[in-house]
DNA sequence: CGAAGTCTTGAATATTATCAATAGGGGTGG
DNA sequence: CCACCCCTATTGATAATATTCAAGACTTCG
């Protein structure tokens, strides 16, 4: 229940864009050379400390953020104070998509992270010249919906073992190896999978004994699956 | 496992728009008089029989559909053949939002329904003159994501009784009364709430005995809650 | 009326949650 | 460096909850 530390304030750095890993596959890919220059000059960024929130549930969404590096958990609190994690967010994903509406969830950094900040006004202006920007936002929203529905299937139809294996498999598919580093705590995983912390712990032990996980050591997990 | 009947093919009717209940609060609201005339002349509609599918999971989404009347269940099948309902769709909602991508789910009519059919090309053309159309699509996608996350919270944090009450309360809030007509079967509700059919049935009995539901008679349910 | 489907109820089982205690890990200060 | 504390994670025993399998009741429709 302690107050989250405030994250650092926005600041402009012209060379941030040079090191941006997600530029080619996000809205900046739509911009021409001159516009890219302008963006690089004026774009504000935010650096978010581990545990700090980039956006907060219920607050107004003034900006659209593009995650450049790091990782976030998306948290929704229920009326009776329970915590549900509705997703995890990685570089290339957007946060604060809701134009002038309250945020549906808080986004809390799991590790020191960087995000790029677009004002909605700026986006509208750019969209006039580059209609594909809006299309990318629509497509991205669609991807998010798809992921949320995968999540619904996990929670609606799978038992504890299946939930955990599905979760680890999704993480492993983000990289190329069967060894995974978990950026989130056990409680985070439990709150994502709709399980109690103890059930998750027991399920991990069971999966390891059954050989479906060849290693479970703190935040390092190794899947045992037929070579992809 | 029987094949769903094919729904009737598309047809054009100039006066369909006259009886459209959702026109003012959907994309047509952006159009001027002349454009509205054009839409009314050329727009194709589909009438979907009860049990028929408007779109199918895995098939390419050629069109965007706007539901005019009736009601659909959104069905996703898991690899092992289980059925999860990821949502219900009512007049004013869109289907087939994914530009040139496969549908994430099937939409099956719960009652005889009508939908209005937009080709993606037509939408792009109209959007050039009316940028708000794209904004409406973005906003609608956001609403859908929000609803999916509500669903995640139901499945992740609530027990059977809470799930059922939350579901009925949502339905009641769509209208103005505490008496609800359910357009879907018990199995549909169970597959939406992540419960077995028998568990749902028992939970209904329990809620009635406890007085939280004052009536449960087939598809008619009456909530017992402090007058809103 | 009969048949097929849908819904409800019953009894036994399986799964998960709860409460409680213990173990591990990382940092701080003596 | 070690002892201590705090936080996170694991394990154990029991209780609550939901599933499974089975049977019966209610509806709808031919």
Describe this structure in words.
The structure is a homodimer of 228-residue chains. Chain A has 228 residues and is α+β, with helices and mostly antiparallel strands. Chain A has 2 domains: 11-155, Jelly Rolls; 158-223, Orthogonal Bundle (Arc Repressor Mutant, subunit A). In chain A, 36% of the residues lie in helices and 24% in strands. Chain A has helices at 33-42, 120-129, 132-157, 160-174, 186-193, 197-209; strands at residues 11-12, 44-48, 53-55, 63-69, 72-77, 83-89, 94-95, 106-109, 113-119, 179-181, 213-217, 220-223. In chain A, the strands form 3 sheets. Chain A has a 5-stranded antiparallel sheet. Chain A has a 4-stranded antiparallel sheet with strand order 3-8-5-6. The longest helix of chain A is centred in the middle third of the chain and has 26 residues, at 132-157. Chain A is globular, with a radius of gyration of 19 Å. Mean pLDDT of chain A is 91; it is low at 1-6. Chains A and B meet through helix 2 and helix 3 of A and helix 2 and helix 3 of B. The structure holds a DNA duplex (30 and 30 nucleotides).
